[in-house]
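hey can u check if this looks right to u? its 253 residues, i copy pasted from the old doc so theres a chance i mangled smth
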Amino acid sequence: MPDTSQDQALMASIRIFYQPIVRLEGLRPAYAEVLARTTGIDGTVGGAAAVVAAMTGAERSMRLTACIMQRALDEYVQQGFAAQNLCIAINLPLDAMLHPNMVSLIELIRLRSGLPASSIRFELTERHPVHDLKAARTVITTLRAAGYGLALDDITPAMPYLPALLDMPIRAIKLDRSVVISNAASDQTFIRDMVAHAIANGQDIIAEGIETPELRDSLRARGVTHGQGYLFSRPLPASGLQAYLAATTWQPA
């Protein structure tokens, strides 16, 4: 059994940051990804490693994901992002998604916040392989029908069951940074194939890890629709995101 006291301490230390995702055509922010970070007793902000390491097992992943979602939606409303019609993306581990209580918990948290499902996107992450593809399709279809946006996150050629996951009713696919920055011919072919898949299915395709204008322009020329990375912005606290949106004259899509 997981140590609930350790989980409670971890949840108490979580702070929410945001990283904008930008349309490569026009270079305007489209929405922001929620990133959970931990803080030490001295207030120092750490990375995501502690949160990722704690996502072990569907039950624990569900609890931590629900905590992050609750914190993010509370801040989203309090900071006025809802009034600006800014969509946010929240990571949802596939094993947590398949927990029998996850969908109802998502709906409960959303309804308490008063937000429409259309303002929330879930980036489906596969930290642990999910073998029950039929169940995954059922839950993804349910979330999509409820109005949530769904993206398949961190995809690489080695992702288990990738063809089956790509065939599910998702709105976007997100290329892992390792593929985006790679010069290997196989990874470049993978990007080409994923762009073709996205175009054929009316999906967005997002590239992580963009740090140079040259890479941005190359990906845009190849059909990638959105980008994320330090070229556009580092992860920001809510106040920093407000300043970023003001500086980029944010307008909702």
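The chain has a mean pLDDT of 90.
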